[in-house]
Amino acid sequence: MTSTTNDTTAGPGRPSRTAVVTGASSGIGEATARRLAAEGFHVFCAARRTDRVQALADEIGGTAVTCDVTDAASVAGLAEAVGPRLDVLVNNAGGAFGSSPVAEADADEWRRMFDVNVVGLMQVTRALLPALLAADDGAGIICNVGSTAGRIAYEGGAGYTAAKHGTQVVTETLRLELWDQPVRVCEVAPGMVRTDEFALVRFDGDAEKAAKVYAGVAEPLVADDVADAIAWMVTRPRHVNVDELVIRPRAQAAQHKVHRVTSSD
Ligand code: 8X3
């Protein structure tokens, strides 16, 4: 784990509110880090790709932390970099790997999905909870980035939907377990969001397959839309807990009901 900051000192010059965003190297994580910085947070930008989080942290005046959420030692390093107090944790690191039907599923892909979407989220939460409980005025908040895939099933999606159902259930469990503690627990569950990497990673770099996910959809959500929702959720007054927020593009009424305009229409 390495961390570098543009401003390591507390006090004048350093914003009083702090946020950690995991998976900050691209997509929703990157957009959320930018947005929270614009809202006045000092953002710890955590991800495996050092060059990317460093460039982002340099740009937004935050702290870059090289961190693999699936690795306990790496997560311990993140907690060390953050220190004793934290206001906001956005557990965004996650992803989909593969789209095979269950009958042809790859166990390693499934393990990777459970590892990053569920175990990683748990490890980061466990490590940073003491700091969140020490946030000023009991205003600490955890926002887990789930998915509409955590609410339904679809063919070829079982490994990912099972993992994202896991994200949802862990969030709910955590809220029950922390009911009397000064910290809030919420989940944002996005539907179709067009990012540079999500579909490309899922289809192992196959750009044609990835493009088909968004084919004919004039306006899928973009990462900034989700960042906007997250920023709203984590900046509510401290007595307000937005349990879960499902956000989709207008064109997507459900996973299987997407309005697509193709050239043959
Ligand atoms: C992404 C939503 O529809 O690709 O989390 O499963 S979907």
UniProtKB/TrEMBL annotation:
Gene3D superfamilies: NAD(P)-binding Rossmann-like Domain. Coiled coil: none annotated. Pfam families: adh_short (PF00106). Residues 1-24 are annotated as: Disordered. It comes from the Bacteria. Keywords: Oxidoreductase. InterPro entries: NAD(P)-bd_dom_sf, Sc_DH/Rdtase_CS, SDR_fam. Transmembrane segments: none annotated. PROSITE patterns: ADH_SHORT. Belongs to the short-chain dehydrogenases/reductases (SDR) family. This is SDR family NAD(P)-dependent oxidoreductase. It comes from Nocardioides marinquilinus. The lineage of its organism: Bacteria, Bacillati, Actinomycetota, Actinomycetes, Propionibacteriales.
